[in-house]
Amino acid sequence: MIPLGPKEAFLKRVTETLEEANGKTALFPTGRMALYGSSAVLCLFSLSLKDPGAKEEICFLFNKRSRWVRQAGDLCFPGGGIAHRFDPVAARFLGLPFFPLGRWPYWQDWKKHRPLEARHLALLLATALREGTEEMRLNPLRIRFLGPLPPQSLLSFQRLLYPMAAWIGRQRRFFPNREVEKVVAIPVKDLLTPEKYVRYRMRFASYVNGEEAVQDFPGFLHEEKDDHEVLWGVTYRIVIELLEVLFDFRPPKMEGLRLVEGSRDANYLGSPTGKGR
């Protein structure tokens, strides 16, 4: 087991490690319209959402997507596409004192030495915070920004997804909107346990001819009481990349892992609302 350490030590480690990694490469493209069509998500850490008095653990916090949106049933981080009328305005305030970027120890350095990337960062964080507020009623002023992560390619939607790592402060109750079935907390120590990783066999129903497609994916099985969730896809990739950067952790190879099966219907990539990442 890889020790996480006390909360403050863990958060300091995340913040410093991400900044060290980000200093080696440009995260964002150049140009005024470079982020057009991009999405941003909050890669959330929190203390566990257990009953008062229970031992608290550092967790990743996920939304489970409801049947009203694309990719229903998947675990994801809150986020979505840039709202070009609202998010640029909100981004101007994030660097002020007591706001998430203003409290981030590297903000002034970014503004001085990486001004274009700093503007892109503020815009993407504003997007992720707005989406988190809409989806699960996050209090954006209680968010502690830890740093950006490299973008992920969303092949199904031909866009880039920019994760923003953040810590939720004292908020323990969330009020999901219709896009979210429930909020799921998974301890970081569990995600560092190789025995919990699985080979996730997904069956996709086709909306064209009714035939079924089958494909195996690397996944993580979260079991709690009589329920279970499987983390897979782009959210899985974000989590694994962060665990590799922080702890030099790599999940076991998919071959030979326990097989877990799942299915998605023909509306998986085309929900009634059309909402997606």
Largest sheet: 8 strands, mixed
Give average pLDDT, whole number: 88
Query: What is the total tally of β strands?
Result: 12
Structural class: alpha+beta
SSE order:
HEEEEHHHHEEEEHEEEHE
CATH superfamily of the domain at 7-193: Nucleoside Triphosphate Pyrophosphohydrolase
Poorly predicted tracts of residues: none
Q: Estimate the strand proportion.
A: 25-35%
How far do the termini sit from each other?
34 Å
The portion of residues assigned to helices is 25-40%
Overall 3D shape: globular
Number of helices, counting only DSSP H or I runs of 4 residues or more: 7
* CATH C-level label of the domain at 7-193: Alpha Beta
Describe how the helices and strands are arranged.
Blueprint: H1 7-22, E1 39-47, E2 58-65, E3 75-76, E4 79-81, H2 87-91, H3 100-103, H4 107-113, H5 115-136, E5 143-148, E6 152-154, E7 159-168, E8 180-187, H6 188-191, E9 197-205, E10 212-224, E11 227-231, H7 233-247, E12 258-264
Parallel strand pairs: 1-7, 9-12
Antiparallel strand pairs: 1-2, 1-4, 2-3, 2-8, 5-7, 6-7, 9-10, 10-11
Helix pairs in contact: 4-5
Could you characterize the architecture of this molecule?
The chain has helices at residues 7-22, 87-91, 100-103, 107-113, 115-136, 188-191, 233-247; strands at residues 39-47, 58-65, 75-76, 79-81, 143-148, 152-154, 159-168, 180-187, 197-205, 212-224, 227-231, 258-264. It has a domain at 7-193: Nucleoside Triphosphate Pyrophosphohydrolase, CATH 3.90.79.10. Strands 1, 2, 3, 4, 5, 6, 7 and 8 form an eight-stranded mixed beta sheet that branches. The mean pLDDT is 88. It is 26% helix and 30% strand. It is globular and about 50 Å long. The chain contains seven helices and twelve strands. A hairpin with a 6-residue loop joins strand 9 (197-205) and strand 10. By secondary structure, it is of the alpha+beta class. The relative contact order is 0.19.
